Amino acid sequence: KETLDKGLEKTKDSFFSKLGRAVVGKSTVDEEVLDEVENVLISSDVGVETTVKIIRRIEERVARDKYMGTDELDRILREEIAALLSDKSDINGKLETDDFALPANKKPYVIMVVGVNGVGKTTTIGKLAAQFHKRGKQVVLGAGDTFRAAAVDQLKLWGDRVGVPVISHGMNTDPSAVAFDAVKKATDMGADVVIIDTAGRLHTKVNLMNELTKIKRVMQKITPDAPHEVLLVLDGSTGQNAFIQATEFTKATEVSALAITKLDGTAKGGVVIGISDQFKIPVKYIGVGEKIDDLQTFNKMEFVDSFFK
Ligand code: GDP
């Protein structure tokens, strides 16, 4: 919770102080206040569509109750924002006690990680591996981003650091062959989880779709219901670009969960709200720093709370 508050400090400071200014000298939520709230949401990168939705819901409440004091605004905004967010509790019906717990009936649990270069994909894989490893789980990594030498090397570094095997065929090799070998290795050694990196080239959509489809098909030769999770990594500091990437990737493959990174470096953490609302995909992880422990499982109530303090 403390790291979360610290990680979201910039967004919180900006959001909270702007919100404070929006209601200064006002006792009721009127048109003028709502216009200001709208500006605050837009400037936190909540996105226009989601902002309009939130403002409309507040207007409806004002109309229904005939009155809303500015002292109630925080609570009401909190409620409306939480209603648009989805986290792991929406998949499982509840949050587990250990947020990094893996489903017991899927072994190895296969996670395919997608996203464009630079968003923090490799780092997120490393951080995830560390969390699972720390819980005594056997982890295998697959260096399937074979398009860039740096990506393969970096994943190997993470593997060494965490102490888990990395399956790699080097650069410019077939990513689906890497995925196959990684799932095979994980199955043979009875590993708990295998995390496969992929190349995130967006410039050719058909290629992206074909590549991801092929990787899936090949790993299904070993584990028919793999991947159990397709995790899309988005850079939370890139605002509207994150929306565009989410659009492209959800067209190319079935994304089941989101990881939103670099929220520590931005005042635009509202992007989490907009993306969660528009894509209806649960945010599972958030990145709040470069260090190995700076990955958190996303909890919508905690997230909203950290905005309003
Ligand atoms: P990839 O190209 O998508 O694999 O991206 P990398 O994992 O190499 O990350 C790109 C840069 O972003 C690196 O310098 C990471 O340290 C940094 N990074 C990744 N996640 C976070 C985060 O949550 N917060 C911060 N501040 N930096 C991050």
From TrEMBL:
Keyword Ribonucleoprotein on entry: no
GO biological process, one term: SRP-dependent cotranslational protein targeting to membrane
Annotated membrane topology: Peripheral membrane protein
Single Gene Ontology MF annotation: GTPase activity
Pfam families linked to this entry: SRP54, SRP54_N
Domain of life, source organism: Bacteria
Catalytic activity, reaction form: GTP + H2O = GDP + phosphate + H(+)
Cellular component GO terms held in the UniProt record: cytoplasm; plasma membrane
Cell compartments where the protein resides: Cell membrane; Cytoplasm
InterPro entries: AAA+_ATPase (IPR003593), P-loop_NTPase (IPR027417), Signal_recog_particl_SRP54_hlx (IPR013822), SR_rcpt_FtsY (IPR004390), SRP/SRP_N (IPR036225), SRP54_GTPase_dom (IPR000897), SRP54_N_sf (IPR042101)
Residues at which GTP binds: 115-122, 197-201, 261-264
Keywords in alphabetical order: Cell membrane, Cytoplasm, GTP-binding, Hydrolase, Membrane, Nucleotide-binding, Receptor
Enzyme Commission number: 3.6.5.4
Role description: Involved in targeting and insertion of nascent membrane proteins into the cytoplasmic membrane. Acts as a receptor for the complex formed by the signal recognition particle (SRP) and the ribosome-nascent chain (RNC).
Family: Belongs to the GTP-binding SRP family. FtsY subfamily.
Subunit structure: Part of the signal recognition particle protein translocation system, which is composed of SRP and FtsY.
Protein name as it appears in the record: Signal recognition particle receptor FtsY
Organism of origin: Spirosoma profusum
